[in-house]
User: Fold this.
Amino acid sequence: MFKKTIIHITIIVLILFISAAIVRFFMPFYWGDATQTVKYEYYEKNAEKYNAVYLGGSLEYRHIDPSIIDSVAQKNGIDFHSFNLGIDGHGIIQQLNDLEGLLKIRNPNLKYIFLSISSESYFFKANLHTPKWISWHTATSTYNALNLTSTLDDPLKFRTKFSGFWLSSWIENLFNIGTVPDMLKYKFDKSYLDTSYVGKNKDGFYPYDYEESHLFMEYKWEDTLLLESRHRFEKSDPYTDTLNKSVLNSFTNYKATDAPNKVMTALYLDAYKKCKKKGIQVFFVLPPKARTSYSLLLPVFNAMPEGSKIELADIRKYPKFYSIEYGYNFHHLNYKGARLCSQELAKQLIPLLKSEENN
Amino acid sequence: MLFNSLHFLLFFPIFCYLYFSVAKKNQWKILVAGGYYFYGNFSPFFAIILFVITCNDFIAGKMMEKASEQSKKKKWLFLSMAGNLGILFTFKYLDFADNNIRELLAVFNIPWFVPEPYFNSWIVPVGVSFLTFQSLSYTIDVYKGVTKAEQHFGYFAGFTAFWPVMVNGPIERAKNLLPQIKEEHRFDYDRMRHGLFRMAWGFFKKAVIADRLAYFVDNMYLHYHEISGWTTIIGGFFFFMQVYCDFSGYSDIALGAAKVIGIDVMENFKRPLFAKNLADIWTRWHISLSTWLTDYVFFYLGAYKASGAKVIFNVIFVLAICGLWHGANWPMVLAFTMVGIFMAIRYWWQANVVRAIKPSNTYRLFDKYFPDWLHSVITVALFVFCFLLFRVHTAQLAYNSSHPNAPVEWASMAKTIYYNLFKIHTAGYFHGWITHQGIVQFCVVVFFMLILISTEALIGDRKIETVVLAKNKQQRWIIYIILLISIVWFGIFNNTSFVYFQY
Assistant:
């Protein structure tokens, strides 16, 4: 009797698994997130106009203004048309998943991809059980996440908890747990998609200053969180000093002999090689104001190939990024800061592009 | 522990494995341990309260049986009632009483010594009303001689800590549950199939329908000042369906889980949507509570034996008590009192008017051409009308927390909602309400509600699991797969608790 029960349960699980896979087959990889849907659909339609793309999280979406970089590059005689595909909350694992998806979108002109080195495998817990979070999980991304989480320095309990979240999110996606109404919404009712996500210049860039007046964010709590952190930041909350000291310490204490996180380094190098094979040059950006400690990020960044690194995070070189005048909140720049950041990125990028062209 | 949580998904098979593995003499131990783990998981403090209730009623039951004189028996019954109702009052009604006394004294400018707010931070143990009423029914039954006092503390502890029903009902009676707890239970494949299917049906109602309806109901009450008549009518019906699916869903899971471990628990709902009048709905909705109140309060008051006016008072009084049981707030009491008033009106109508005109041809013709479904529609409409108040208290709290600068009084909110009910001609907040989650969510919830209603219409008063499991293998498997896919794909699984947990 026990054997019969197990067989029946297995059959049911298999049927659920297969039918879920069939349904998922008809969905693009970005369907779960409204911002991502709008930006990727726009990019898909206009892909051939662009030869460069920025991937990452909010540190890219809200900080990198493609129009500034394009104009600087073009002034230097470089054919450069870029699009910002950064999406709020996308850490390393999701970014690499985005890269997989991006490479499947036909664009023969794509020459440059910018990857962000700004996060580990932790994420914003409030996103759990939402299509935004669970819709993109794959066996590979789960394996990478678990592998990376196991190598981090945090307490075992914390890492185990997040590993559990990764696993459960993957299972939720495997069986489409609770996600089908949102899939139907994506297929039949796109009224929820706000084209403002593409940005005012239709280049994927949308700083938080605009967000504040538009407030089109998906979840109300995000607005609240965003504004709360903004108010605290504006009032020169002591937390700003703590963060800045931590950034300063990470950079001053860094030694060239510091060993990088092996899993993280391997993930980025694999992505680099994969793109190289397709004739695409990858640039690694170390953005300012990352939530993750630069003590972890800096050695990984420095382990990347020469000629592919753009560093914008050092508080000693870029003190303005960490000032209240150029900041939006503790971990983001305002529009003024974003413009400065884009100019600095362009400054470092031009020589790299020129040497790339010469090669 | 919530039934719709990963924790329960792990707990249930482990519990079953242990329960069926041990010898008969030890099964009660697993039951008690499981019950305390299940309940203590909400808070260890709750488990202490459960233990206190168990000890109180076990001792009272034993002493009542020992006592030779009626007066002594009465004393022990009073002690048991004082213990149960004292716990219930302390945790659930003290804050309500405190607020009312304060407001009343304020009218006469008399200061109240209890600082404000004082009791509202006290945590109400989950399902304390269910626990106390179940345990209380035991001592009342022992007092009446309906049940013999249990001599084995372990079995009695198994009765109070019977986890499938302990936090959200059905409120079981000792005479049904205790003998079953004492029996030996071995794994039975057929019982398991029946139980699991019933559980799945409960999950379907809860996760697919109730939790999705909650989006619309919450939003309607949040925009209570701008909603149109149609929004109020449809939203009111949605709320009725939400509570029905949420609560009957829990009952189905409880019944199914109990069935798997070999115990039959009383049905708590019998298709209330098909009730033909409000008295009929009283026998179909939360049956374990309505029978409890009928047996222990209504009959105590004299039931229908008294004079016409007294019966009318009894009906309204019992329904008011029912409202108070549901929530320590005036809107809830009023909601059920309104149901009571409608029931009393019907009683008066039946006793005075119908009896007089029944033999006439006009009445026969009217009765013939007034179809059953129209009776049901009117009954549900009246129930929904009263139920609009059911939610006002929590809606007021939610509204005030999101509008701290413009708080609203419950009476003003209720007045506006009832006023809006008649604004049929205006569009108001209707389209926005239907589409605030996207039109797909609205279509999905309406589709599944139709499935539920048609299924209930088709199966009649038979149990769903009996109907499905009597079908041939192919049909059964198709139903299993469709039901599971509906739950997995369309369910909402963000650990939303059950509406009735607060009672």
